[in-house]
Design goal:
Chain B: InterPro entries: UPF0210. The structure holds two protein chains of two kinds. By secondary structure, chain A is of the alpha+beta class. Chain A has one domain: ACT domain (Alpha-Beta Plaits, 2-Layer Sandwich), CATH 3.30.70. In chain A, 37% of the residues lie in helices and 38% in strands. Chain A is built from three helices and four strands; from the N terminus they run βαββαβα. Chain A has a four-stranded antiparallel sheet, sandwiched between helices. Chain B has two domains: 165 residues, Anaerobic Ribonucleotide-triphosphate Reductase Large Chain, CATH 3.20.70; 228 residues, Anaerobic Ribonucleotide-triphosphate Reductase Large Chain (Alpha-Beta Barrel), CATH 3.20.70.20. In chain B, the strands form two sheets. In chain B, strands 1, 2, 3, 4, 5, 6, 7, 8, 9, 10 and 13 form an eleven-stranded mixed sheet that branches. In chain B, strands 11-12 form a two-stranded antiparallel sheet. In chain B, a hairpin with a 6-residue loop joins strand 11 and strand 12. In chain B, helix 6 packs parallel to helix 7 and helix 9 packs across helix 11. Chain B is globular. Classes of the chains: A alpha+beta, B alpha/beta. Chains A and B meet through strand 1, strand 2, strand 3, helix 2 and strand 4 of A and helix 1, helix 3 and helix 9 of B.
Chain lengths: 89, 447
Amino acid sequence: MKAILTTIGKDQVGIIAGVSQFLAAKSINILDVSQTIMDGYFTMMMMVEIKDKDFDFSVLTAGLNDLGQKLGVEIKIRRAEIYQAMHQL
Amino acid sequence: METNKIIETIHMIADENLDVRTITMGISLLDCIDSDSDRACQKIYQKITAKAAKLVKVGQQIEAEYGIPIINKRISVTPISLIAAASNDEDYFKYAQILDKAAKAVGVNFIGGFSALVQKGYQTGDLKLIKSLPRVLAETELVCCSVNVGSTRSGINMDAVADMGKVIKQAAERSVIANTKLVVFCNAVEDNPFMAGAFHGVGEGDTVINVGVSGPGVVKHALEKVKGQPLDVVAETIKKTAFKVTRMGQLVGSIAAERLQVPFGIVDLSLAPTPAVGDSVAQILEEIGVEKVGTHGTTAALALLNDAVKKGGIMACSRVGGLSGAFIPVSEDAEMIAGVQAGALNVEKLEAMTAVCSVGLDMIPIPGDTPAETISAMIADEAAIGMINNKTTAVRVLPVKGKKVGEMVEFGGLMGYAPVMAVNSASSKNLIDRRGSIPAPIHSFKN
Protein backbone atom coordinates (compact mmCIF):
# COMPACT_ATOMS: atom_id res chain seq x y z
CA MET A 1 0.00 0.00 0.00
CA LYS A 2 1.07 3.58 -0.59
CA ALA A 3 1.19 6.15 2.18
CA ILE A 4 2.19 9.77 2.46
CA LEU A 5 4.59 10.76 5.18
CA THR A 6 4.70 14.44 6.06
CA THR A 7 7.39 16.13 8.12
CA ILE A 8 6.82 19.72 9.18
CA GLY A 9 8.84 21.83 11.58
CA LYS A 10 11.84 24.10 12.13
CA ASP A 11 14.70 23.36 9.72
CA GLN A 12 17.83 21.84 11.23
CA VAL A 13 20.62 19.40 10.41
CA GLY A 14 19.69 15.75 10.00
CA ILE A 15 15.92 15.71 9.46
CA ILE A 16 15.97 13.93 6.08
CA ALA A 17 18.70 11.57 7.27
CA GLY A 18 16.83 10.74 10.48
CA VAL A 19 13.53 10.04 8.73
CA SER A 20 15.16 8.01 5.94
CA GLN A 21 17.13 5.88 8.37
CA PHE A 22 14.01 5.20 10.41
CA LEU A 23 12.08 4.10 7.29
CA ALA A 24 14.94 1.94 6.02
CA ALA A 25 15.10 0.14 9.37
CA LYS A 26 11.40 -0.69 8.98
CA SER A 27 11.91 -1.86 5.34
CA ILE A 28 9.67 0.94 4.08
CA ASN A 29 10.60 2.00 0.55
CA ILE A 30 10.62 5.70 -0.40
CA LEU A 31 9.04 6.22 -3.85
CA ASP A 32 9.11 10.00 -4.12
CA VAL A 33 10.31 12.95 -2.05
CA SER A 34 9.58 16.65 -2.25
CA GLN A 35 10.88 19.25 0.13
CA THR A 36 10.26 22.95 0.47
CA ILE A 37 10.24 25.80 2.98
CA MET A 38 6.62 26.92 3.50
CA ASP A 39 5.85 29.94 5.72
CA GLY A 40 9.35 29.55 7.18
CA TYR A 41 8.79 25.90 8.07
CA PHE A 42 10.66 22.92 6.71
CA THR A 43 8.01 20.86 4.88
CA MET A 44 8.81 17.43 3.47
CA MET A 45 6.44 15.04 1.73
CA MET A 46 7.39 11.45 1.06
CA MET A 47 5.41 8.91 -0.90
CA VAL A 48 6.30 5.55 0.62
CA GLU A 49 5.36 1.97 -0.05
CA ILE A 50 4.56 -0.55 2.64
CA LYS A 51 4.62 -4.13 1.37
CA ASP A 52 3.16 -5.93 4.41
CA LYS A 53 -0.67 -6.00 4.02
CA ASP A 54 -1.29 -6.44 7.75
CA PHE A 55 1.07 -3.66 8.74
CA ASP A 56 0.36 -2.19 12.19
CA PHE A 57 0.10 1.59 11.75
CA SER A 58 -0.30 2.34 15.45
CA VAL A 59 3.21 1.02 16.22
CA LEU A 60 4.67 2.99 13.29
CA THR A 61 2.84 6.17 14.37
CA ALA A 62 4.22 5.84 17.91
CA GLY A 63 7.75 5.39 16.50
CA LEU A 64 7.35 8.43 14.26
CA ASN A 65 6.10 10.52 17.18
CA ASP A 66 9.23 9.66 19.18
CA LEU A 67 11.46 10.42 16.19
CA GLY A 68 9.63 13.70 15.59
CA GLN A 69 10.28 14.77 19.18
CA LYS A 70 13.95 13.98 18.82
CA LEU A 71 14.24 15.96 15.58
CA GLY A 72 11.97 18.81 16.71
CA VAL A 73 9.45 18.27 13.88
CA GLU A 74 5.97 16.81 13.47
CA ILE A 75 5.87 13.59 11.46
CA LYS A 76 2.59 12.08 10.28
CA ILE A 77 1.82 9.15 8.05
CA ARG A 78 -1.50 8.51 6.34
CA ARG A 79 -2.54 6.07 3.63
CA ALA A 80 -2.59 7.93 0.31
CA GLU A 81 -6.27 7.22 -0.46
CA ILE A 82 -7.48 9.87 1.97
CA TYR A 83 -5.77 12.67 0.03
CA GLN A 84 -6.97 11.29 -3.29
CA ALA A 85 -10.54 10.97 -2.02
CA MET A 86 -10.66 14.54 -0.75
CA HIS A 87 -8.97 16.31 -3.66
CA GLN A 88 -9.45 14.23 -6.79
CA LEU A 89 -12.62 13.24 -8.60
CA MET B 1 -0.29 14.83 -5.53
CA GLU B 2 0.19 18.54 -4.95
CA THR B 3 1.89 19.60 -1.74
CA ASN B 4 -0.67 22.31 -0.96
CA LYS B 5 -3.57 19.81 -1.16
CA ILE B 6 -1.81 17.51 1.29
CA ILE B 7 -1.13 20.44 3.61
CA GLU B 8 -4.80 21.50 3.36
CA THR B 9 -5.98 18.09 4.54
CA ILE B 10 -3.45 18.07 7.37
CA HIS B 11 -4.64 21.51 8.54
CA MET B 12 -8.29 20.42 8.37
CA ILE B 13 -7.59 17.48 10.68
CA ALA B 14 -5.00 19.03 13.00
CA ASP B 15 -6.27 22.60 13.41
CA GLU B 16 -9.90 22.68 12.26
CA ASN B 17 -11.32 19.65 14.07
CA LEU B 18 -12.20 17.67 10.94
CA ASP B 19 -13.30 14.22 12.03
CA VAL B 20 -15.64 11.36 11.38
CA ARG B 21 -18.18 11.92 14.13
CA THR B 22 -19.50 8.39 14.15
CA ILE B 23 -19.44 4.98 12.54
CA THR B 24 -22.77 3.44 13.47
CA MET B 25 -23.62 -0.20 12.87
CA GLY B 26 -27.34 -0.74 12.37
CA ILE B 27 -28.44 -4.20 13.51
CA SER B 28 -31.90 -5.68 12.97
CA LEU B 29 -33.31 -7.48 16.02
CA LEU B 30 -36.44 -8.75 14.27
CA ASP B 31 -35.06 -12.30 14.37
CA CYS B 32 -34.67 -12.04 18.17
CA ILE B 33 -38.41 -11.70 18.90
CA ASP B 34 -39.59 -14.28 21.42
CA SER B 35 -42.65 -14.64 23.66
CA ASP B 36 -40.24 -15.44 26.50
CA SER B 37 -38.47 -12.17 27.28
CA ASP B 38 -35.44 -13.90 28.86
CA ARG B 39 -34.90 -15.87 25.69
CA ALA B 40 -35.40 -12.73 23.57
CA CYS B 41 -32.77 -10.88 25.63
CA GLN B 42 -30.35 -13.76 25.27
CA LYS B 43 -30.77 -13.69 21.48
CA ILE B 44 -30.36 -9.90 21.42
CA TYR B 45 -27.10 -10.09 23.39
CA GLN B 46 -25.74 -12.84 21.16
CA LYS B 47 -26.63 -11.09 17.92
CA ILE B 48 -25.21 -7.69 18.91
CA THR B 49 -21.97 -9.06 20.36
CA ALA B 50 -21.45 -11.28 17.29
CA LYS B 51 -22.19 -8.64 14.64
CA ALA B 52 -20.36 -5.77 16.34
CA ALA B 53 -17.46 -7.77 17.80
CA LYS B 54 -14.88 -6.07 15.54
CA LEU B 55 -16.56 -2.65 15.17
CA VAL B 56 -14.38 -0.75 17.64
CA LYS B 57 -11.16 -2.48 16.54
CA VAL B 58 -11.80 -1.72 12.87
CA GLY B 59 -12.58 1.90 13.76
CA GLN B 60 -9.28 2.21 15.60
CA GLN B 61 -7.37 0.61 12.71
CA ILE B 62 -8.83 3.11 10.25
CA GLU B 63 -7.96 5.98 12.60
CA ALA B 64 -4.34 4.82 12.73
CA GLU B 65 -3.93 4.13 9.01
CA TYR B 66 -5.64 7.25 7.67
CA GLY B 67 -4.84 9.59 10.53
CA ILE B 68 -8.45 10.72 10.79
CA PRO B 69 -10.10 10.77 14.23
CA ILE B 70 -13.27 8.67 14.51
CA ILE B 71 -14.90 10.09 17.60
CA ASN B 72 -17.67 7.56 18.19
CA LYS B 73 -18.36 3.95 17.38
CA ARG B 74 -22.03 3.21 17.92
CA ILE B 75 -24.80 0.69 17.37
CA SER B 76 -28.43 1.25 16.44
CA VAL B 77 -31.06 -1.48 16.69
CA THR B 78 -34.66 -2.11 15.64
CA PRO B 79 -37.12 -0.14 17.82
CA ILE B 80 -37.45 -2.23 20.98
CA SER B 81 -41.22 -1.67 21.20
CA LEU B 82 -41.54 -3.97 18.15
CA ILE B 83 -39.18 -6.59 19.59
CA ALA B 84 -40.58 -6.66 23.11
CA ALA B 85 -44.28 -6.60 22.16
CA ALA B 86 -44.41 -10.41 21.76
CA SER B 87 -43.64 -10.92 25.44
CA ASN B 88 -46.22 -10.33 28.14
CA ASP B 89 -43.83 -8.24 30.24
CA GLU B 90 -45.34 -5.08 31.69
CA ASP B 91 -42.00 -3.27 31.85
CA TYR B 92 -39.21 -3.26 29.27
CA PHE B 93 -36.32 -2.26 31.54
CA LYS B 94 -34.86 -5.73 31.09
CA TYR B 95 -34.42 -5.10 27.35
CA ALA B 96 -32.59 -1.84 28.02
CA GLN B 97 -30.32 -3.58 30.51
CA ILE B 98 -29.31 -6.19 27.95
CA LEU B 99 -28.63 -3.49 25.33
CA ASP B 100 -26.45 -1.66 27.85
CA LYS B 101 -24.57 -4.86 28.67
CA ALA B 102 -24.04 -5.74 24.98
CA ALA B 103 -22.83 -2.20 24.21
CA LYS B 104 -20.30 -2.38 27.04
CA ALA B 105 -19.16 -5.84 25.94
CA VAL B 106 -18.23 -4.65 22.45
CA GLY B 107 -16.90 -1.29 23.71
CA VAL B 108 -19.11 1.13 21.75
CA ASN B 109 -19.91 4.65 22.99
CA PHE B 110 -23.70 4.40 22.69
CA ILE B 111 -26.46 2.06 21.57
CA GLY B 112 -29.67 3.57 20.18
CA GLY B 113 -33.04 2.03 19.52
CA PHE B 114 -34.92 1.84 22.80
CA SER B 115 -37.58 3.43 20.68
CA ALA B 116 -41.24 3.46 19.71
CA LEU B 117 -42.90 4.78 16.54
CA VAL B 118 -46.33 6.01 17.60
CA GLN B 119 -47.19 8.73 15.09
CA LYS B 120 -50.65 7.28 14.45
CA GLY B 121 -51.38 5.43 17.68
CA TYR B 122 -50.14 3.02 20.33
CA GLN B 123 -49.61 -0.68 19.65
CA THR B 124 -49.14 -3.36 22.34
CA GLY B 125 -45.54 -2.55 23.21
CA ASP B 126 -45.49 1.21 22.68
CA LEU B 127 -47.06 2.47 25.89
CA LYS B 128 -45.14 -0.08 27.97
CA LEU B 129 -41.90 1.15 26.42
CA ILE B 130 -42.80 4.79 27.06
CA LYS B 131 -43.61 4.02 30.70
CA SER B 132 -40.23 2.29 31.10
CA LEU B 133 -38.34 5.34 29.81
CA PRO B 134 -37.66 7.31 33.04
CA ARG B 135 -36.04 4.29 34.72
CA VAL B 136 -34.15 3.26 31.55
CA LEU B 137 -32.78 6.78 31.07
CA ALA B 138 -31.69 7.06 34.70
CA GLU B 139 -30.35 3.55 35.32
CA THR B 140 -28.62 2.56 32.08
CA GLU B 141 -25.48 4.28 30.83
CA LEU B 142 -25.22 3.78 27.09
CA VAL B 143 -28.82 3.23 25.96
CA CYS B 144 -30.33 6.01 23.85
CA CYS B 145 -34.07 6.33 23.49
CA SER B 146 -36.40 7.96 20.99
CA VAL B 147 -40.12 8.24 20.34
CA ASN B 148 -41.60 9.34 17.02
CA VAL B 149 -44.83 11.20 17.77
CA GLY B 150 -45.73 12.61 14.37
CA SER B 151 -45.22 12.47 10.63
CA THR B 152 -46.31 14.35 7.53
CA ARG B 153 -48.24 11.26 6.39
CA SER B 154 -49.96 10.51 9.70
CA GLY B 155 -50.31 13.76 11.62
CA ILE B 156 -49.38 14.18 15.28
CA ASN B 157 -50.34 11.76 18.03
CA MET B 158 -51.24 14.23 20.78
CA ASP B 159 -51.75 11.45 23.34
CA ALA B 160 -48.10 10.57 22.90
CA VAL B 161 -47.13 14.26 22.98
CA ALA B 162 -48.93 14.62 26.34
CA ASP B 163 -47.34 11.45 27.71
CA MET B 164 -43.82 12.44 26.62
CA GLY B 165 -44.03 15.75 28.53
CA LYS B 166 -44.66 13.72 31.70
CA VAL B 167 -41.90 11.20 30.88
CA ILE B 168 -39.35 13.99 30.44
CA LYS B 169 -40.34 15.51 33.80
CA GLN B 170 -40.12 12.12 35.55
CA ALA B 171 -36.73 11.36 34.01
CA ALA B 172 -35.42 14.80 35.06
CA GLU B 173 -36.43 14.04 38.66
CA ARG B 174 -34.19 10.98 38.60
CA SER B 175 -31.06 12.35 36.97
CA VAL B 176 -29.81 15.58 35.38
CA ILE B 177 -28.35 13.82 32.34
CA ALA B 178 -31.24 11.36 31.79
CA ASN B 179 -32.93 13.46 29.11
CA THR B 180 -29.71 13.94 27.12
CA LYS B 181 -30.38 10.37 25.94
CA LEU B 182 -33.98 10.92 24.82
CA VAL B 183 -35.23 12.46 21.57
CA VAL B 184 -38.88 13.07 20.67
CA PHE B 185 -39.20 13.11 16.87
CA CYS B 186 -41.52 14.06 14.08
CA ASN B 187 -40.66 12.40 10.74
CA ALA B 188 -37.88 10.31 12.31
CA VAL B 189 -35.48 8.80 9.77
CA GLU B 190 -34.61 5.10 9.77
CA ASP B 191 -30.90 5.34 8.95
CA ASN B 192 -29.74 8.12 11.27
CA PRO B 193 -26.25 7.38 12.65
CA PHE B 194 -26.36 10.21 15.23
CA MET B 195 -27.40 9.85 18.87
CA ALA B 196 -29.55 10.07 20.81
CA GLY B 197 -32.05 9.55 17.98
CA ALA B 198 -30.56 6.60 16.10
CA PHE B 199 -32.57 3.42 15.52
CA HIS B 200 -32.44 0.76 12.80
CA GLY B 201 -35.58 1.00 10.70
CA VAL B 202 -37.59 -2.08 9.72
CA GLY B 203 -37.06 -1.33 6.02
CA GLU B 204 -33.28 -1.52 6.36
CA GLY B 205 -31.06 -4.52 5.62
CA ASP B 206 -30.12 -6.95 8.40
CA THR B 207 -26.87 -5.20 9.27
CA VAL B 208 -25.48 -2.00 7.80
CA ILE B 209 -22.74 0.58 8.37
CA ASN B 210 -23.76 4.26 8.40
CA VAL B 211 -21.34 7.13 8.82
CA GLY B 212 -21.79 10.63 10.19
CA VAL B 213 -19.20 13.22 9.21
CA SER B 214 -18.55 16.55 10.82
CA GLY B 215 -16.43 19.61 10.44
CA PRO B 216 -17.94 22.99 11.36
CA GLY B 217 -14.40 24.27 11.96
CA VAL B 218 -13.41 23.45 8.38
CA VAL B 219 -16.36 25.39 6.95
CA LYS B 220 -15.69 28.36 9.23
CA HIS B 221 -12.02 28.43 8.18
CA ALA B 222 -12.92 28.28 4.47
CA LEU B 223 -15.35 31.19 4.90
CA GLU B 224 -12.66 33.33 6.52
CA LYS B 225 -11.08 33.55 3.07
CA VAL B 226 -14.18 35.10 1.42
CA LYS B 227 -14.91 37.89 3.90
CA GLY B 228 -17.23 40.60 2.52
CA GLN B 229 -17.99 38.75 -0.71
CA PRO B 230 -21.57 38.13 -1.93
CA LEU B 231 -23.60 35.30 -0.38
CA ASP B 232 -23.43 33.33 -3.65
CA VAL B 233 -19.69 33.03 -3.02
CA VAL B 234 -20.39 31.94 0.56
CA ALA B 235 -22.75 29.20 -0.68
CA GLU B 236 -20.20 28.04 -3.27
CA THR B 237 -17.42 27.92 -0.68
CA ILE B 238 -19.55 25.87 1.73
CA LYS B 239 -20.48 23.46 -1.09
CA LYS B 240 -16.85 22.84 -2.03
CA THR B 241 -15.84 22.32 1.60
CA ALA B 242 -18.77 19.98 2.27
CA PHE B 243 -17.76 17.98 -0.79
CA LYS B 244 -14.26 17.34 0.56
CA VAL B 245 -15.52 16.49 4.05
CA THR B 246 -18.10 14.08 2.66
CA ARG B 247 -15.58 12.34 0.38
CA MET B 248 -13.56 11.59 3.47
CA GLY B 249 -16.69 10.16 5.17
CA GLN B 250 -17.48 8.05 2.12
CA LEU B 251 -13.93 6.64 2.10
CA VAL B 252 -13.95 5.80 5.81
CA GLY B 253 -17.45 4.27 5.62
CA SER B 254 -16.68 2.08 2.64
CA ILE B 255 -13.43 0.83 4.20
CA ALA B 256 -15.22 0.09 7.50
CA ALA B 257 -18.02 -1.74 5.68
CA GLU B 258 -15.55 -3.82 3.67
CA ARG B 259 -13.52 -4.84 6.71
CA LEU B 260 -16.60 -5.68 8.76
CA GLN B 261 -18.15 -7.51 5.78
CA VAL B 262 -21.35 -5.57 6.14
CA PRO B 263 -23.10 -3.49 3.41
CA PHE B 264 -22.35 0.24 3.46
CA GLY B 265 -25.52 2.25 4.07
CA ILE B 266 -25.41 6.02 4.00
CA VAL B 267 -23.30 9.05 4.79
CA ASP B 268 -25.07 11.57 7.00
CA LEU B 269 -23.88 15.00 5.88
CA SER B 270 -24.39 16.75 9.16
CA LEU B 271 -22.37 19.56 10.64
CA ALA B 272 -22.25 18.48 14.26
CA PRO B 273 -20.57 20.82 16.75
CA THR B 274 -18.76 19.97 19.98
CA PRO B 275 -18.10 22.29 22.93
CA ALA B 276 -14.44 22.53 21.81
CA VAL B 277 -13.32 25.99 20.66
CA GLY B 278 -13.47 26.22 16.85
CA ASP B 279 -15.91 23.32 16.43
CA SER B 280 -19.06 25.43 16.38
CA VAL B 281 -21.96 25.78 13.91
CA ALA B 282 -22.93 29.13 15.46
CA GLN B 283 -19.44 30.39 14.62
CA ILE B 284 -20.14 29.73 10.92
CA LEU B 285 -23.34 31.80 11.11
CA GLU B 286 -21.36 34.60 12.74
CA GLU B 287 -18.69 34.32 10.04
CA ILE B 288 -21.46 34.68 7.42
CA GLY B 289 -22.37 37.97 9.04
CA VAL B 290 -24.52 38.00 12.18
CA GLU B 291 -22.79 39.59 15.17
CA LYS B 292 -24.22 37.06 17.62
CA VAL B 293 -26.11 33.88 16.82
CA GLY B 294 -29.84 34.46 17.43
CA THR B 295 -30.05 38.00 16.12
CA HIS B 296 -32.08 38.93 13.02
CA GLY B 297 -30.68 37.22 9.93
CA THR B 298 -29.64 34.06 11.78
CA THR B 299 -32.42 31.97 10.23
CA ALA B 300 -31.49 33.13 6.71
CA ALA B 301 -27.80 32.37 7.27
CA LEU B 302 -28.67 28.93 8.66
CA ALA B 303 -30.95 28.17 5.69
CA LEU B 304 -28.11 28.99 3.29
CA LEU B 305 -25.64 26.88 5.28
CA ASN B 306 -27.94 23.87 5.57
CA ASP B 307 -28.75 23.83 1.86
CA ALA B 308 -25.17 24.36 0.70
CA VAL B 309 -23.90 21.51 2.90
CA LYS B 310 -26.42 19.15 1.27
CA LYS B 311 -25.64 20.29 -2.25
CA GLY B 312 -21.91 19.91 -1.71
CA GLY B 313 -22.16 16.54 -0.03
CA ILE B 314 -24.69 14.86 -2.23
CA MET B 315 -22.33 14.29 -5.17
CA ALA B 316 -19.49 13.24 -2.91
CA CYS B 317 -20.99 9.98 -1.73
CA SER B 318 -22.92 7.02 -3.07
CA ARG B 319 -25.94 7.40 -0.77
CA VAL B 320 -26.94 10.27 1.44
CA GLY B 321 -29.27 9.70 4.38
CA GLY B 322 -29.86 10.28 8.06
CA LEU B 323 -30.52 13.83 9.14
CA SER B 324 -28.03 15.57 6.82
CA GLY B 325 -27.90 19.24 7.68
CA ALA B 326 -26.66 21.55 10.40
CA PHE B 327 -27.19 20.63 14.05
CA ILE B 328 -27.95 23.43 16.47
CA PRO B 329 -27.65 21.93 19.97
CA VAL B 330 -27.19 24.65 22.58
CA SER B 331 -25.01 23.00 25.24
CA GLU B 332 -22.74 21.27 22.69
CA ASP B 333 -21.73 24.45 20.85
CA ALA B 334 -19.52 27.07 22.53
CA GLU B 335 -20.79 29.98 20.41
CA MET B 336 -24.45 29.01 20.92
CA ILE B 337 -23.81 29.10 24.66
CA ALA B 338 -22.18 32.53 24.26
CA GLY B 339 -25.24 33.65 22.22
CA VAL B 340 -27.55 32.68 25.08
CA GLN B 341 -25.35 34.41 27.63
CA ALA B 342 -25.28 37.58 25.54
CA GLY B 343 -29.09 37.58 25.45
CA ALA B 344 -29.17 37.24 21.64
CA LEU B 345 -30.48 33.67 21.48
CA ASN B 346 -33.72 32.44 23.04
CA VAL B 347 -36.00 29.42 22.72
CA GLU B 348 -38.36 31.22 20.33
CA LYS B 349 -35.52 32.02 17.91
CA LEU B 350 -34.24 28.46 18.16
CA GLU B 351 -37.70 27.24 17.18
CA ALA B 352 -37.63 29.44 14.09
CA MET B 353 -34.17 28.13 13.21
CA THR B 354 -35.42 24.53 13.37
CA ALA B 355 -37.75 25.27 10.45
CA VAL B 356 -34.75 25.54 8.12
CA CYS B 357 -32.15 23.11 9.48
CA SER B 358 -31.96 19.41 10.05
CA VAL B 359 -33.13 18.90 13.62
CA GLY B 360 -34.93 20.72 16.38
CA LEU B 361 -34.83 22.12 19.90
CA ASP B 362 -31.71 20.31 21.01
CA MET B 363 -29.83 20.13 24.31
CA ILE B 364 -31.62 23.05 25.93
CA PRO B 365 -31.66 23.23 29.73
CA ILE B 366 -34.96 24.65 31.00
CA PRO B 367 -36.13 25.45 34.55
CA GLY B 368 -36.91 22.39 36.68
CA ASP B 369 -40.36 23.73 37.56
CA THR B 370 -41.49 23.91 33.90
CA PRO B 371 -44.93 22.18 33.78
CA ALA B 372 -45.16 18.89 31.84
CA GLU B 373 -47.84 20.47 29.64
CA THR B 374 -45.44 23.23 28.60
CA ILE B 375 -42.83 20.64 27.57
CA SER B 376 -45.55 18.76 25.65
CA ALA B 377 -46.55 21.98 23.94
CA MET B 378 -42.92 22.60 22.90
CA ILE B 379 -42.91 19.10 21.41
CA ALA B 380 -46.22 19.81 19.64
CA ASP B 381 -44.86 23.03 18.13
CA GLU B 382 -41.74 21.31 16.82
CA ALA B 383 -43.77 18.35 15.50
CA ALA B 384 -46.06 20.80 13.69
CA ILE B 385 -43.06 22.46 11.99
CA GLY B 386 -41.80 19.06 10.89
CA MET B 387 -45.19 17.78 9.77
CA ILE B 388 -46.06 20.82 7.67
CA ASN B 389 -42.58 21.26 6.17
CA ASN B 390 -41.96 17.59 5.34
CA LYS B 391 -38.81 17.46 7.43
CA THR B 392 -37.43 15.83 10.55
CA THR B 393 -37.78 17.84 13.74
CA ALA B 394 -36.96 16.79 17.26
CA VAL B 395 -37.04 17.92 20.85
CA ARG B 396 -34.36 17.19 23.42
CA VAL B 397 -35.02 19.60 26.28
CA LEU B 398 -33.51 19.12 29.72
CA PRO B 399 -35.50 20.31 32.75
CA VAL B 400 -32.98 20.80 35.55
CA LYS B 401 -34.29 20.24 39.06
CA GLY B 402 -33.90 23.24 41.36
CA LYS B 403 -32.30 25.48 38.70
CA LYS B 404 -33.61 28.87 37.60
CA VAL B 405 -33.16 30.81 34.37
CA GLY B 406 -29.54 31.88 33.78
CA GLU B 407 -27.95 29.35 36.15
CA MET B 408 -25.19 27.25 34.55
CA VAL B 409 -25.59 23.48 34.14
CA GLU B 410 -22.72 21.11 33.34
CA PHE B 411 -23.56 17.87 31.51
CA GLY B 412 -19.99 16.68 31.01
CA GLY B 413 -17.88 15.70 28.00
CA LEU B 414 -19.40 16.11 24.53
CA MET B 415 -22.74 16.99 26.14
CA GLY B 416 -21.23 20.31 27.20
CA TYR B 417 -22.73 22.97 29.45
CA ALA B 418 -25.29 25.75 29.13
CA PRO B 419 -27.27 28.32 31.07
CA VAL B 420 -30.90 27.43 31.88
CA MET B 421 -33.09 29.10 29.23
CA ALA B 422 -36.44 30.76 29.81
CA VAL B 423 -39.66 29.21 28.51
CA ASN B 424 -42.95 31.06 28.06
CA SER B 425 -44.76 31.14 31.40
CA ALA B 426 -48.33 31.28 30.01
CA SER B 427 -50.07 27.89 30.29
CA SER B 428 -50.64 25.42 27.42
CA LYS B 429 -52.51 23.00 29.69
CA ASN B 430 -55.91 23.19 28.04
CA LEU B 431 -54.43 22.44 24.62
CA ILE B 432 -52.48 19.40 25.82
CA ASP B 433 -55.35 18.09 28.01
CA ARG B 434 -57.57 17.78 24.91
CA ARG B 435 -55.40 14.83 23.75
CA GLY B 436 -56.43 13.02 20.52
CA SER B 437 -54.50 13.78 17.34
CA ILE B 438 -53.72 16.56 14.90
CA PRO B 439 -54.74 15.29 11.45
CA ALA B 440 -52.20 14.98 8.64
CA PRO B 441 -51.94 18.10 6.46
CA ILE B 442 -53.64 18.33 3.08
CA HIS B 443 -50.34 18.11 1.18
CA SER B 444 -49.67 14.67 2.67
CA PHE B 445 -52.20 13.10 0.28
CA LYS B 446 -49.92 12.44 -2.64
CA ASN B 447 -51.17 9.07 -3.92
